[in-house]
Amino acid sequence: MDPRRTVDLAHALRSFSRAGLLDLRRPDQPALLRWELRRWGAQAASVRAAARRHGDGIALVDDLGELSFTELDRRSDALCLAWRGLGLDERSVVAVLCRDHRWLLDSLFAAAKLGATALLLNTGSAGPQLADIARGEGVTAIVHDEEFAEAVGHLPREIPRFTAWTDEPPPGGLGVAPRIDLAALIRRAPSGRPRPPGRAGAIVLLTSGTTGPPKGAPRRVRSLDAVAQLLDRVPWRAREATLVASPLFHGTGLAHALLAISLGSTLVLQRRFDAARTVRLAAEHRCTALVLVPTMLHRILALGPVDDADLSRLRIVLSAGSALSPDLVVRALDRFGDVLYNLYGSTEVATATVARPHELRRAPGTAGRCPRGCRIRLYDEDDRPIDRPNVQGRIFVTNGTRFDGYTGGGSRQVLDGLMSTGDVGHFDEDGLLFVDGRDDDMIVSGGENVFPGEIEDLLSSHPGIEEAVVVPVPDAEFGRRLKAFVVPAPGSRLTPEEVREYVRGSLARHKVPRDVVLVDDLPRTPTGKVLRRALT
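Now predict its structure.
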């Protein structure tokens, strides 16, 4: 084995022990975990191991109540056997269009135990887009909440529909075609436990589609690398409670939901994000961790203190999915204390870096450093590595958990074994990474490279601005120019000229947006990312 790999593995095992995932005094535990991973794959192995170790402990709290680890494991056993009886197998692609609740997890674990592919769909997708995705990904069955029945109606009729969440199941339950009530299916499933699949089940995540149509990014995990990287820079601990507010169809939400279950911690979910309810749920269930996207963090901070909601147990507030503005970082640290972690990564490369609280205190705009087992490097436009601080370049990552290419073909650029994230950034003198923006967002103005993120960070510090997004737009004379969309703070009498003057007072003239549009809100995906292609 490569000596560096041996050191990384030893470090990973120490991280597992520190978190309470393994007891290194039991030499059989690491071997058993690796054996289960090879047999079942990461998703199925995580729930099986958690049920074996934590049994009657509370695994999940959602809008329907509580489930134990044993119940969570047995429900997905039953669903796997029921699906197998209906003809689904390792070649099947099961699409899941659900909000955050037990049925999504049941479907994910059952597909993994079947050896099938689970395709997690964005709950904000329209019917025609769903039909395109289903064709492109070869969907053979779909699990959906009743609220999405109209959108799912755009799929071919021969694709079976399993209704996951409904206030009133369709008459006849199992016998109704093409809709089958998932609860009835589980109740009527054969008894017993499924046999291990011939291969590990895969998960396909869709890219956010903020700049174009979403693409499928498959993952079939049989190693401990992904877990080791999540544990390396964030102090996750076993048998606590984690509220995951980030949608589970998003990589961050899914990864940390599975991590909570693996650790024997209680996973707290809600179907729809509500800032005040999130705070109260975190207090009620004595949560030590909160996983969210920056928009959610912004809305929680805007609430101010919530009566009778004690969040003093929070040790981790982890934000991911889009950039954290420095102003939001400072406000979050001041409100919650030094518990904020900023995770940078992508659907394609998974985790790239994590910024810890002390790093965010010193440099609020940083994306942090790589976990152990991950490498990151910057390259210039001629594909040459950049080794100096404060020099901007394209960000490339390798970590052992990146994807192998889109389901529809193609991939990200790879240099020296590292994959492009599609972003541009720089390192400071201390080796902290700063993400400056998307490489395709850059415009050249006055002979200088301009990235909208720098201007957005500045505007977020203006007391009269709630949110701001800066996008490049076509220009007949210069090719492209900057346009700012600004949401004024409540009660603000902000004007476009005031916005331009604010930028002009801090940045070079070529970074001042020529156009400023005041809007009530910004178009977003369900994960909180701004739909920049909708802004022109």
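The chain is about 30% helix and 25% strand.
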